[in-house]
Amino acid sequence: MNAEKVVFSFVIVLALTLNFGFFMGEMEDPTHHNVYELFATIFVNFLATALKLGDRTQVGAVLLSTSLVANLQLVAAASVWGYVEHVSGTGLTPENTSMMVSLTGGALIANVVSVVMLVSDTLMSRR
Fold first, then answer.
1. Would you list the DSSP string of 73-117?
2. Environment class of residue 88 by beta-carbon count within 10 Å: exposed (0-12), middle (13-18) or buried (19+)?
3. What pLDDT, in 10s, does the model give residues 75-124?
C-alpha cells in the first residue's frame, strides 16, 4: 500500500465530508452552519489543492481545477460571512446565510466531482 496515495485520497475525501457537513441543515438558519466547520473545510480544501499540484496528468489537471473551484467558492462564502458579521453589521440574516450556504453548495459539487474522478482513476489503473 502506498502511503502517499492513502494520504492524498484521505485529504480529498475529508474535504468532501467537511464540506457536506457544513452544507447540511436549514439553508436560512445560521445555527445549522458552524463558522469553525467552514474554516476547517477551507483549510482542508487548500491542503487538498497543495497535494494536487504535483500531478502532471490530464486527470491531475482536472482534479486541480475542481479544487481551485471549491477553494474559490469557499473563500467567497467566508468573505460573505465576514462581511455581514464585521463590516455591514447586519449579521447572519436568512438571506445572507442562504447566500453563504449556496456558495458552499457549489464547492460541494466540485468536491464530489473530484472524488468521483479519484475513484474512477483508481478503478482504471487497476486494469
1. HHHHHHHHHHIIIIIS---S-HHHHHHHHHHHHHHHHHHHHHHHH
2. exposed
3. 999 999 999 999 998 889 999 999 999 999 999 999 999 999 999 988 88
